[in-house]
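Re: the 241-residue chain
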Amino acid sequence: MWQQDETLIGDLYGLAGQLSSQHFRRAALQRLLKTIHVDGAVWASGPIAQRELERISCAGLPDDFAKNLTRFTHENPIMSHLVRAQGNPVDMREAVEDAVFFNSDFYHACFAPYDIHRVLSSLKIHTETQVFTLLSVYRKREEAVFTEEDKQRQQRLLYHLHRCDHECLQTDMKHPWLPEQLAVLSEREQQVVAELMKNQTMKQIAKRLSLSPSTVANHLYRIYQKLDVSGKAELFAFLDQ
């Protein structure tokens, strides 16, 4: 297994810098599924103060699973354990007993529709930005519990995933990656989208592009019209196709 992990880590560093952060995450998760033998995985990040999942990629599960997961972040019993664990993987069984978990409203709303029984998550907080990176892997068979070896592997892989993603973000900042779908936009509109893809707020975008917030808002309105999307969530889904 450790040899498989070494191969995966080598592949990840090979991909880093070649893809945008958004596309790197999807490619990394697909490789992760084949290496650690899980049925699904989610990689997300967001501000730790709000504990909101703002950038989320999913593999092995329907797209609506990721959207459903974000709805129940604050009800997820594993989150407080992850913040305290600081990078150490946490099994859902450590947060709540199986009997309580499988009979909870949270489980039936969030995981039962996807036949998920086992959850292993780890969370890393960037000290300067206070943005967290969350990696969760899932197994559908109830008897397929996660072992201590699974936890050690995930902890190691999260470290390298985090480093590779940071490298991709640095490349994005120097050479913003934009898909060909944005050819219909003006150069300024493409710059706004590039900043939006870095999870910048409207005020941050305005400052970086030396524009007023109202001008950025006008650009966004025209961008949504040209791409026939209703907002940021649909824009990201459109770019992720």
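The chain has twelve helices and five strands.
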